[in-house]
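Hi! If you just cloned this repository, the fastest way to understand the data is to look at a raw example. We've pasted two of them here, unedited. The first protein comes first, obviously.
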Amino acid sequence: MDEAMVRKLIQLGESLTTEFKDSFDQDARETVGAFSNTHGGYILVGVSNDRTIKGVQLGRESIVRMIDDVANNTQPRIVPMIEPLSIDGRDIAVVTVRESGIKPIAVRGKCFKRDDASNRLMSPQEIAEMYSSCIGMSADVSLLHNCAIDDIDLEKVKKYIRTSLIVGRKKFDNDDPIYVLEKLGLVKDRIPTLASIVLFGKSTIDKLPYVKVHCGRFKDGSTIVDDKYVVGTTIEQVDEVLSFILKNIGVKYEISGKPGRTEVWDYPPIALREAVVNAICHRDYTSTSEITVKIYDDKLVIWNPGGLPAGLTINDLYDPHHPSRPRNRLIADIFYDVMLVEKYGSGIPRIIDACKKSGIPVPAFEEKYGGFSVTFRKNLLTEEFFIVHKLNERQAKALIYMKEHGKITNLEYQSINGVSKNLATTELKELMTKGIINRIGTTGKGTHYVFPDKEIS
């Protein structure tokens, strides 16, 4: 790596793939593991968190010691590439870590993954999922020995065969439902897989009582005005959940000059459908928690058990070209065949695009409570709001930026407003004091600002 690229990395600051270290210590070892388990990255040893180039004593022996240190403390062994580089008369070490093909990598018996600009200890569930993903396995292929072929509704299988043929996604040389189930890997030696029961079961709720969606409409934050459990197969759940949502959100009609009226919903139905499909398709079916849909006056939250699939981060979701890594491969394939999934990996970009076109904030995607949530919010950022809260033009611009991007950092506030760090800190603190934004993190790397639960954007 040359000096120009290193200076660029320092200027951009710590991130998902960049870390600064005064010395090569235990934190640096953990970062090697986190980078290996995520997308790889660079550790600049001799550069402090505030981007000051302090330098470090380097020699051939010290570089060999760092390489041995990593190799001896990682399982499976990782051998990073370490290059010495002199900048402004000071020596630093550039440690290049590639994403490992075998995951997860443990550092002294613990596994870490990269989350924004920091390392996070992986849970046993995440470790199991990452390993399963690495060897091409998924939970929905598990055999249910307490079930039999008779527990599968073959008429539903026949409907799937017809639909996949009509839409042109899949064609079978034999339309016998048992043959198709075996060919797709949904049944093995006449024993149903978990996927076969949740997709085509006669009574899924009897065999897997946690495979349901709990939908609720709340008034004033806590009063329940509508409540429903959606059961049935996963394919059936999609339309029923969406029907509940559309019944409980607002819609108005506009005359656009075209024939008929244009429906304008609080949240775009296409985005809601994608979010529901994602929750049902990618939930953790080894968890006994249920999917929840909570509709409030100012927001709508969809939560499913199970965080992001191994190898994906929240930041990856904003990249329209992020790879598709379905947690449940068999279920995802069937959803694709019947066009519940338009294209692998396209769900989140479609949600973001639909919300932008509708003029509402980009949804907040979060890993929380052992699962994954999508929060849709209404657009309440108006000129009246800015006046009532006595916000200056820079603060208004920052809130609009947050509406579009979901969060903002101090550095981004400085950049979009052309102000100093001190002024950015002061004005962000004013927004926090007024309860308009919350800070995530304390100081340094990874610190950013988001709208609070009672969203105003």
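Ok, and the second one:
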Amino acid sequence: MKPPSGSLGGQLGLVGLFDVGQLLMLNRATGCLAVHCGEKKGYLFFKDGRIINAVDDAYTEGERAAYRIFSWRSGAFEFQPEPVDASPTIECSTDGLMLEAARRLDEEGFDSGAPAATGEAARVLEHRAEVEALREAFQEVAGAVGLLDAPRSPSPDVGGLTLAGDRLVYRPGHPPRIRHRKTWHEAREAPLSESEYEKLRLKMLRSCTSTSAIASGATSTRRMTLANGRSIALEFINEGPDEAMWLRPVDLPPPGPERLEGDLAVLDEILDSAQGLILIGGPTLETTRRLLHCLVAMLSDRFSATMLVVSEDDTFRHQEGPGVVVRAQPASARAALRTVQPEFVALDPGACDLTLADLATVPCVLAGVVAVEAAALLPRWLARCGGIDRSRAAALLGDVSIDLVISEHDADDDGPLSVGAWRLSEAGRQRALAGEAFERGPGARGGSSPR
């Protein structure tokens, strides 16, 4: 690996990684130390000579990743001066970190029968004086290549991610592309080279402030906070040459009631009574989620109650009104139900871990369902709840009231949501269970009603 101009690199067989770390520490260097060991790659981030974070080839961060990287005895290294702005995930001193890493290597060697005299911890301590003597020479080299006074590199352009449906994708060998108002555009014409993508990926990882596992744990979502306070989620799809870096906005305010148009009188009646089962739908996942979260926000403003939102999607964040809004992952929804005992439960269109029996004690359930017409809402939701047949569903639902709210057209991110709303009579419930079409017409309650 040949280091580019302005960087410092070499082979680990010739220079020890602990020695490199001590040199960077003593000279208060700021930047990223990339380490390659066969197919493995790891990164140590220095700020003013202190290791503040590490990322190994499994995308593990913090001290654990640093210990693993320091255990690599062969390969190549390269230090690239760059500003490091991320919050520290490693709190201990760099000297202490390297001594602990060396001690762990000693323990591994002891378990394998290696002589104690060749311990890495003793060698690190012995080399302190030698490294101190090399400091002056290193400073001359560092000054010549600009390691100690590096200019700030341009930040990735994520400022355009402002709406719920906006996306930004980076892939090696492809131009960056951004999706805004449901249309994809090339952020620039030139494709990203592998080295450009790698540098951008490192910069993104360094800017992230937290990591959380979602779904089955196979996907990790990292977060970064922009200067304006907005939050961006970062996810990686695939590995190797097919890897894609996917960015999207999160923690946005939900759509407000001013976005709604259509059967608002019936909708207002549904929200005022707020009981039983309210099925909320749209032709796409994005439209369904926007409508669901709009109604969740409206209910939380109307009632001093507990709302449990079951979703792995973090696009919207609710501000609490008179009551409390709690969010739970689908996998932990049953435990959350027992603990929170909410008056309202809102189920994301992707949440399918709860059954009708689980929800029997909840006064009001709002369930998002992707559907292009109202007649499909109840059959689709029952299929998602375990494929319950019509007679079984009728028995479980008993005399539970069922209301339907749907936006039959795919809405723009910041455009109006045109809604139809129905309050089902007993005959309407039976037709809904059968998936029969509804006739729209003026009802006694001031809106569209299934007859």
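That's it. A detail worth noticing about the second one: The chain has eleven helices and 20 strands.
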